[in-house]
Amino acid sequence: MGSFSIWHWLIVLAVVLLLFGRGKIPELMGDVAKGIKSFKKGMKDDEESTQAQERRGLDDHSGQTVQRETKTDKTTV
Predict the structure, then answer these.
(1) What digits encode the pLDDT tens for the residues 11-66?
(2) Per the UniProt record, which residue ranges are transmembrane (predicted)?
(3) Position 10 confidence tier, pLDDT thresholds 50, 70, 90
(4) CA distances from 35 to 16, 32, 41, 43 (A)
(5) Domains of the chain: which residue ranges?
(6) φ, ψ (nearest 5 deg) of residue 5
(7) What is the pLDDT of residue 67?
(8) What pLDDT, on the 0 to 100 scale, is given for residue 22?
(9) Which of 8, 14, 45, 62 could form a disulfide with 4 if both were Cys (CB 3.0 to 4.6 A apart)?
(10) CA dist 59 to 13, 37, 47, 54, 66, Å?
(11) pLDDT for residue 77 is more than 90
(12) Measured between alpha carbons, how far apart are the two ends of the chain, in Å?
């Protein structure tokens, strides 16, 4: 009752082929592959731009003292 036989899987495959047709499934898989490739490329580009910004940030302040303004809220009770 918990597992499917080969006949169940063949019926499911036939229904999927009827719904999507022979040409539609490879097209869908191609679109999925393109999406994965563009996602990986975007992640790689994002990492490279972050590293480049970090390098630029380090290069801009070489030999200089960086001063930052800090706000302190001192209240007496």
Answers:
(1) 998 998 888 877 887 888 899 999 999 999 998 888 888 877 777 766 555 556 65
(2) 6-25
(3) very high
(4) 22, 5, 10, 12
(5) 24-51
(6) -90, 175
(7) 67
(8) 77
(9) 8
(10) 59, 33, 18, 9, 13
(11) no
(12) 73
Distance (Å, rounded) from C-alpha 75 to C-alpha 77? 6
What is the residue whose two structure tokens read 């209240």?
A: 75
Non-local CB neighbours of 17 within 8 Å, separated by 6+ positions: 25
Backbone φ/ψ region at 6: left (φ over 0), alpha (ψ -120 to 50), beta: alpha
Q: Are 60 and 68 in contact (CB under 8 A)?
A: no
Query: Tokens in use for 25?
Result: 């499934």
Per the listing, tokens 């490879």 go with 26
